[in-house]
Amino acid sequence: MSARQPIAAPTGHQGFEFDYSHNVVYFKGGSIHLTPHEADILQVLLNNRARTTPLEVLIQNVYGTTEPPSASVSIRVAMHSLRKKLRDTGLKIKAEPRVGYEIDAEAIPELNRRLSDKILVAINTAKASGEHEIVARLQVAYEMAETRRRRWLAARGGEQQDAIAPRQDAIKPTDPRDPPQDVIIPAKK
To answer: What HEC string does 20-60 produce?
Structure first.
């Protein structure tokens, strides 16, 4: 992946926040510093939430075309370290034998909120500030997010899902049956 910026100083975050560009997870006012590989792995797992991510996908996203022969071992070691670092946050990474890894973010409500829910919060904030033009634009975004979610649910046979997968900045979905990308994780600078 690209070069990293210096580690940011903790800034009073009370919930869970992943700052991918600085390799830091903020949780309950503290910070958890990740290695670049750990941050890359966490980013891919969050982007592919609600489905198992194959080991080959993790290797490709961490190493790209410069994959060393020891890549799978390196990913497994980084995964072990990442699990230990994130243990207190409630974020769990499950291994699917011979398949890959899946993230379970059920204990972190901020990550399970749909995009439309986040837009509603922004609409209410803009309304309270008297920003009518911003409210109008956010309402258009809200309608787009809800339309996309309804289409995805219809394509899946109407089955309900509590957690919708995050938006994928680095990974483009190849399967039209993939869930919509709803959680926005800041892209690297």
So the answer is: HHHCEEEECCEEEECCHHHHHHHHHHHHCCCCCEEHHHHHH
In CATH terms, the fold of domain 16-106 is Arc Repressor Mutant, subunit A (1.10.10)
State the greatest distance between any 2 C-alpha atoms of the chain, in Å, as a whole number: 58
Task: Encode pLDDT of 34-58 as tens digits.
Answer: 999 999 999 888 888 778 899 999 9
Q: Is the pTM above the cut of 0.70?
A: no
What residue ranges do the domains of the chain occupy?
A: 16-106, 115-155
Helix, strand, coil tally for the chain in percent (to 5): 45, 15, 40
Contact (CB, 8 A) for 25 and 34: yes
pLDDT digits (tens, 9 = 90+) for 85-119: 999 888 889 998 888 999 887 766 666 566 776 78
